[in-house]
Design a protein that fits this description.
The chain is of the alpha+beta class. Helix content is 52%, strand content 23%. It folds into two domains: 95 residues, Immunoglobulin-like, CATH 2.60.40.1220; 175 residues, no CATH class.
């Protein structure tokens, strides 16, 4: 009896060893999964073991809803840098999902199950948790359209003949850019990133500064009939309310520009204005790239 019991215990131990979950990996969600109708969303995780990034894994997952039966979404991840793994995932709806991960490396398999909450996105991108909404993108499209019409009016005032035709043809070609969401997002991200940097540096914006900048913009738009017509069609009150919010960011960014101009003047006391502004602009772009890289930016 004792021999039989011992044999059974040994077999049980062998079976348990074979079902071991492998290395003790930890999975953290780097980029949350969102539900977008008929469209996949980026999903990114980071795998660590004892606080260190784990590379060289083959990562797959089965996603299923926790409370409803909508089938299983199979996901295969591609490896990125420093233990990150990403995939584009199309889920049937928002809600709570169970993600059953299978991680393989050097013949060892690890299974991990985590719960994720899939929600509808509030916009098209996030900067440090703050959404860039569809309305934000639409407004920037309108601003670009406004500038395009101003440039057309200016061309008609300053050029004639063939030169005018060429200028108007070029401006017509820029219409396509208005629908380029990536370019619009880039404009938004640049401004918001620099405004955040200005606040980090201790800069603040007074209401009077914003009001002065907005009034200056009003005066510039008033010079062009096409701009006035577009603003009226958009809704003057709505336009200037949104524009005022934009100018808070613009004034903040201008404070960083002024800091860099002052610094360039101090470092190059004999340089002319053109050289000063060139150096300041170069430093501004370098600073902007560094700032963007330091922020958590998610684009859906």
């Amino acid at each position: 009896m004792h021999a039989v019991l011992l044999l059974m215990m040994m077999v049980f131990a062998a079976v348990m060893t074979g079902c071991s979950s492998g290395p003790d990996y930890k999975i953290d969600i780097i980029k949350e999964l969102y539900y977008q109708k008929d469209k996949p969303s980026p999903f990114e995780i980071k795998v660590t073991e004892a606080g260190k990034a784990v590379t060289g894994l083959t990562v797959t997952a089965d996603l299923s809803m926790a409370t409803m039966n909508h089938g299983t979404v199979k996901v295969k991840f591609a490896e990125g840098k420093d233990g990150t793994y990403a995939a584009d995932v199309k889920v049937p709806m928002n809600g709570k999902f169970e993600a059953a991960f299978l991680l393989k490396k050097d013949g060892e398999k690890t299974e991990k199950v985590i719960e994720i909450n899939v929600v509808k996105p509030e916009g098209v991108a996030k900067i440090n948790g703050q959404w860039i909404t569809d309305k934000d993108v639409s407004f920037y499209k309108f601003i670009n359209q406004l500038q395009l019409e101003i440039n057309r009016d200016a061309a008609r005032k300053n050029y004639s003949g063939k030169q005018l035709e060429e200028e108007l043809a070029y401006l017509d070609s820029q219409e396509k850019v208005l629908d380029d969401q990536n370019k619009l997002l880039t404009q938004i991200i640049r401004l918001r990133s620099m405004a955040l940097l200005a606040e980090e540096k201790g800069h603040k914006v007074e209401a009077a500064e914003v009001d002065a900048a907005v009034e200056k913009a009003r005066g510039q738009y008033a010079q062009f009939a096409s701009a006035q017509a577009l603003i009226q069609h958009y809704g003057e009150e709505k336009f200037w309310d949104v524009e005022k919010q934009q100018y808070k960011l613009i004034v903040l960014a201008q404070k960083v520009q002024k800091d860099l101009v002052d610094q360039a003047k101090k470092e190059n006391p004999k340089a002319g204005d053109q050289e000063i502004y060139y150096q300041a602009q170069k430093q501004y772009e370098d600073l902007l790239i560094s700032q963007i890289n330091s922020l958590k930016i998610e684009i859906l």
